[in-house]
Every structure is written in structure tokens, then in C-alpha cells.
């Protein structure tokens, strides 16, 4: 079955599969007998079961796996959560469609006490608090089944009912919102903005709130359990209602700029070739968002809530981590071979190679193998720590609308560490994040992005040293004048940029990325299945910068 969300918000989910691991009955029988003897003898271990206490009850490894699964799901690390199950492909699709189709923000999943079954399985009950964007929180209880595998590890035995007890092959959930009049929205100068004039803003307008809460005044809706075939409502799981709209609420004033928004939408319509794509432009000095555009303009907001591997645009963060600790300098020779094997074979786009290249050349030509060769100069988890501490990635952002704020997990092995150096593996971002990363790199200071005034800022970051900023700006500029972002050369202003090509799967073309800065504006664009960043996202960004020559400074 397919498991995408339909236009009404229905979450479709595939059927479950699972495996059966070895029993540990023999061991437990021995333990039980030993305990019985100890009690019968009245020994000193009888009260606490002495040395046998650690062998009774559920295996702690099963509980750890359950909690890790919930933590990954809670943080939006769907590939990581799925890998902890007996059916990763099905699990990832269902978890993504469940949260996206029901418009769920960041869930809160709380594990309860584990229990062990007669057949050797372990079950971990949990409470799910699912914030439905703009409506309220849906709370329910479910259970994770875990089974020991042939290699002695534990996996969550995948079944649809663990996501919610009533999710099945015959029933699914559907989110229905009552039609409400969206609030009046203006740009930063007070100019009225409508969904008719700016199609990408239509789905976003009811999510904007002047208090930064991301909700809509007067929003109402419900989550229904429906028959997969007929769509008939079988029961209502949750109802939501909000306060009545007041006449004196007034318009929601945003940070958007009508000229930038119009140019962004036109650039996607003209240059994205009908592919799924998204773009964000924001001010470097304060993080205020000037434009949010999506193609198609209706439906899922890829620009703010998408979860993509950022590909080589992430080399901005990787370079920062290396430069911060003096692990490399721009003029150091870091060879760029065609291939490099770290568990798997990594290669450069179009199988390029640059023998004897400097690190600057590796950056401007986006050499994957050179960056991967430097992986041992960063400690485990250091890339994620730099992303969080200096760029705010993975911290909770309060933008004024629903967002996904990025994830950089600690690599599980050397292959994943190699992949994370080039923005692959489990590194996740979107255009909002990468526009912010670019702004931070060229200014040295992270500013939480914002769409409305008065948003709460709970982030805590450290400024980049001026020397690192200078090096990053120089390499970004060289990428336009001498590297893979030459498509932006010849435009007015001193533009810096970085291209990116992100692998998706063997049966899909790569996603194309490009980030850029000019004046006081940073931009990020992704084009799904765009093959290369310069060839797909490049024309979009060039079209935007051509249409809006000013820098909104």
C-alpha cells in the first residue's frame, strides 16, 4: 500500500512485517530454579535475589532499544527509528505519513515500565502526546512489542498498531479542519498579502500567529478513524476547538517582503521545471524571513518543515568544524581522488578528481572524497555539536509557524561518519535551516529565524571566530568565481554560494541544492530530483537575485 498523506490529511500506512527471535526460556528456567533454591535456603540473597537480580525481568537491552526508538521518533529522526524495527522500509514510510498526514508537530513520547511475555517478547507501554498543528494535543496510549533477534540484539517488532492501537490494514486516521477565515496578513511594510497573489502563502496563513505560537485563532477540527476503502468515519478519536476570533485581533504582521516573496514564487514557477522544490530567503543580520516559496504551492510546506539530506551545502558546517579546531587551513593540500572507500565506495559528482588540490579547491569544486578523508580530524559527535552550538541546528526554534529544526545524530559507524561529512547519512535539514546556516557562516552570529514579531527565542549559541568567518566567506565567494556555483557569476553584488547534490535512493535522481548570500540576504533552495545543485537550484536562485537587485539591508 502507499503511505502518503492525501489532500485531506489522511495518513496512509503500509502493512506490517516482522521476525521472530530466539527464546531465552532455558536461561530463565535456570535462573528461576536458582532463585527458588536461594529463597528456600533462606540465604542472604533471598530478599534481593543477590547475584541473580540482574537476570530477572525484561532484558535491559530491550528497554533501551524501545526508548531509543521513541527518542528517534520524537525527534523526527524517522530513518533512525525505522532502523530499530524489524521492517525499516515500512516503518519509515508509516511514521512519516502518520506525522505529516495528521499535521503533527514535535511529539512527546513517554515510555512506561517494560513487561516480559511468556514467549520471550518484551512490551513497553508508552504515552503519546501529539501536537496537531494549530489545533491542540492528541493524547493516547500504545505499546511497543520487542523481540530478540538471531544475533542477540533487540528490535521493535513492526506492526501498525504500535503507532496507534486502532491503526490497521483496514482503518486509518484522517484529520479534518473546519473551514475558517484566515487572518489578514501583511508584509513587513504593512502591505496586504493574500493567498491569491502569493500562492505559497495560502497554506501558511492560518498557521501564522503574532505570539509565535503557530496556531490560528478560531481553529477547529477533528481526527477521525475511517475505513481505508470507503472513507466512512467509524469513530472520532479527538476533537479540537479554539477561542472565537475577535474583531479587534487585527492583521498579522509578518517579516515577509512582498517583492522578495513575489520574486521567489516566480523563480520557482519559471525555473523548477515542475519539480517539487522550495526556497527561503532571510535577512542575515536578524534572521527575519523575507520569502517562503514552495512548488507546488499547495500542501506540504517543504521550505519550513521538509526533512532532506542537505548534501554538499552541509560542507559549510563541516568546514566550520574543521577550521574551528585548526584541523585544516584553506591552503593545505587535501587530495581529491575519484573514489574513497569507507565501508562503502564514495565518489564525486561526475566522477571528478583533483590531484594535489588545496582544501579551498576541494570546497569550491565540492569534492566529497577530500572531505571524507578528513573525518578522523573530528571526534565522534563533533560535527553535530558544532552544528548545534554555533548554527543552532537541532535546537528548538520558535519561528511563528510550524518548522522542522534539523538533526545531526552521532554517527553509528565509520561509514555513517563519512557520509555525515558531506551532508548525507542521517543529517537532516531544509531550506529554512540552510538559509540560516549560510547567514550564520557569513556573519558569525546565529539569529533564530522569524516570520512574525514577538517570537520566543530559547536558543543558546556561540559566535564563530572572525577568522573562521573570513575563511568561509572567501571560500563561498571562490565557489561563484571559480567553482560549481558559476551560474551566479556576473550578477551585481559580491555573491558567495555553495552547491549541493544529495543522494536519495537508487531509484531516484539526486536532489539539487544551492545556498547563496548577497548583501544582507541569505538564500537556500532545494529541487527534488534536480540531479545537480548548479543545474537545478542554480537557475532558481539566479532568477530570484536577478528579479530583486536590492539586498534588503
Structure description:
The chain is α+β, with helices and mostly antiparallel strands and 553 residues long. It has a domain at 259-547: 3-Layer(aba) Sandwich (Beta-lactamase). 29% of the residues lie in helices and 19% in strands. It has helices at 25-40, 60-74, 78-83, 88-101, 160-163, 202-205, 258-271, 302-305, 315-324, 359-364, 368-373, 382-391, 414-421, 431-443, 466-482, 533-547, and strands at residues 108-111, 115-116, 122-132, 136-148, 154-156, 171-177, 185-186, 192-193, 220-227, 233-241, 252-253, 277-283, 289-295, 339-342, 344-347, 496-502, 511-518, 521-527. The strands form five sheets. Strands 1, 2, 3, 4 and 5 form a five-stranded antiparallel beta sheet that branches. A five-stranded antiparallel beta sheet has the order 13-12-18-17-16, sandwiched between helices. Strand 16 (496-502) and strand 17 (511-518) form a beta hairpin. Helix 7 runs antiparallel to helix 16, helix 9 crosses helix 12 (382-391) and helix 9 crosses helix 15 (466-482). The chain is globular, with a radius of gyration of 26 Å. The chain starts with 24 loop residues before the first helix and ends in a 6-residue tail after the last helix. Residues 1-55, 210-218 and 242-248 have low confidence and may be disordered.
Task: Note the topology.
Elements: H1 25-40, H2 60-74, H3 78-83, H4 88-101, E1 108-111, E2 115-116, E3 122-132, E4 136-148, E5 154-156, H5 160-163, E6 171-177, E7 185-186, E8 192-193, H6 202-205, E9 220-227, E10 233-241, E11 252-253, H7 258-271, E12 277-283, E13 289-295, H8 302-305, H9 315-324, E14 339-342, E15 344-347, H10 359-364, H11 368-373, H12 382-391, H13 414-421, H14 431-443, H15 466-482, E16 496-502, E17 511-518, E18 521-527, H16 533-547
Parallel strand pairs: 7-11
Antiparallel strand pairs: 1-3, 2-3, 3-4, 4-5, 6-9, 7-8, 9-10, 12-13, 12-18, 14-15, 16-17, 17-18
Helix pairs in contact: 7-16, 9-12, 9-15
Amino acid at each position: 500500500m502507499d503511505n502518503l498523506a492525501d489532500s485531506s490529511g489522511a495518513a496512509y500506512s503500509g502493512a506490517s512485517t516482522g521476525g521472530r527471535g530466539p527464546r531465552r526460556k532455558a536461561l530463565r528456567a535456570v535462573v528461576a530454579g536458582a532463585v527458588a533454591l536461594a529463597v528456600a535456603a533462606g540465604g542472604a540473597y533471598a530478599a534481593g535475589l543477590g547475584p541473580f537480580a540482574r537476570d530477572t525481568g525484561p532484558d535491559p537491552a530491550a528497554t533501551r532499544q524501545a526508548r531509543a526508538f521513541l527518542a528517534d521518533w520524537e525527534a523526527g529522526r524517522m530513518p533512525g527509528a525505522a532502523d530499530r524495527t524489524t521492517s525499516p522500509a515500512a516503518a519509515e514510510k508509516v511514521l512519516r505519513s502518520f506525522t505529516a498526514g495528521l499535521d503533527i508537530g514535535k511529539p512527546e513520547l513517554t515510555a512506561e515500565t517494560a513487561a516480559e511475555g511468556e514467549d520471550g517478547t518484551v512490551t513497553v507501554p508508552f504515552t503519546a502526546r501529539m501536537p496537531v498543528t494549530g489545533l491542540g494535543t492528541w493524547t493516547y496510549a500504545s505499546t511497543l512489542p520487542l523481540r530478540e533477534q538471531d544475533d542477540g540484539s533487540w528490535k521493535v517488532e513492526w506492526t501498525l498498531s504500535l503507532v496507534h492501537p486502532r491503526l490497521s490494514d483496514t482503518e486509518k486516521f484522517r484529520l479534518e479542519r473546519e473551514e475558517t477565515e484566515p487572518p489578514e496578513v501583511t508584509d513587513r511594510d504593512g502591505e496586504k498579502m493574500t493567498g491569491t497573489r502569493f500562492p505559497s502563502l495560502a497554506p501558511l496563513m492560518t498557521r501564522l500567529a503574532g505570539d509565535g505560537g503557530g496556531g490560528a485563532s478560531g481553529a477547529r477540527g477533528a481526527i477521525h478513524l475511517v475505513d481505508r476503502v470507503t472513507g466512512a468515519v467509524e469513530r472520532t478519536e479527538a476533537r479540537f476547538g479554539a477561542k472565537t476570533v475577535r474583531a479587534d485581533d487585527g492583521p498579522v504582521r509578518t517579516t515577509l517582503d512582498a517583492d522578495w516573496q513575489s520574486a521567489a514564487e516566480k523563480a520557482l514557477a519559471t525555473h523548477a521545471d515542475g519539480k517539487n522544490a522550495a526556497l527561503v530567503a532571510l535577512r542575515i543580520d536578524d534572521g527575519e524571513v523575507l520569502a517562503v516559496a514552495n512548488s507546488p504551492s499547495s500542501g506540504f510546506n517543504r521550505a519550513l518543515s521538509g526533512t532532506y539530506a542537505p548534501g554538499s551545502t552541509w560542507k559549510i558546517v563541516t568546514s566550520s568544524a574543521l577550521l574551528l579546531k585548526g584541523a585544516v587551513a584553506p591552503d593545505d593540500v587535501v587530495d581529491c581522488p575519484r573514489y574513497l572507500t569507507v565501508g562503502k565506495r564514495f565518489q564525486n559528482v561526475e566522477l571528478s578528481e583533483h590531484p594535489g588540490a588545496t582544501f579551498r579547491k576541494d570546497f569550491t569544486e565540492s569534492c566529497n572524497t577530500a572531505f571524507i578523508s578528513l573525518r578522523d580530524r573530528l571526534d565522534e559527535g563533533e560535527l553535530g555539536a558544532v552544528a548545534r552550538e554555533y548554527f543552532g541546528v537541532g535546537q528548538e526554534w520558535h519561528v511563528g509557524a510550524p518548522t522542522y529544526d534539523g538533526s545531526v545524530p552521532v554517527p553509528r559507524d565509520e561509514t555513517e561518519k563519512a557520509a555525515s561529512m558531506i551532508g548525507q547519512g542521517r543529517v537532516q535539514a531544509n531550506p529554512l535551516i540552510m538559509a540560516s546556516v549560510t547567514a550564520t557562516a557569513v556573519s558569525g552570529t546565529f539569529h533564530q529565524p522569524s516570520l512574525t514579531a514577538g517570537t520566543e527565542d530559547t536558543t543558546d549559541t556561540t559566535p564563530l571566530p572572525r577568522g573562521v568567518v573570513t575563511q568561509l566567506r572567501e571560500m563561498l565567494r571562490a565557489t561563484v568565481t571559480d567553482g560549481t556555483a558559476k551560474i551566479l557569476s556576473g550578477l551585481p553584488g559580491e555573491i558567495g554560494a555553495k552547491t549541493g547534490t544529495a543522494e536519495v535512493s537508487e531509484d531516484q535522481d539526486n536532489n539539487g541544492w544551492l545556498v547563496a548570500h548577497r548583501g544582507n540576504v541569505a538564500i537556500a533552495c532545494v529541487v527534488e530530483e534536480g540531479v545537480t545543485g548548479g543545474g537545478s537550484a542554480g537557475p532558481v536562485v539566479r532568477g530570484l537575485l536577478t528579479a530583486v537587485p536590492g539586498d534588503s539591508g
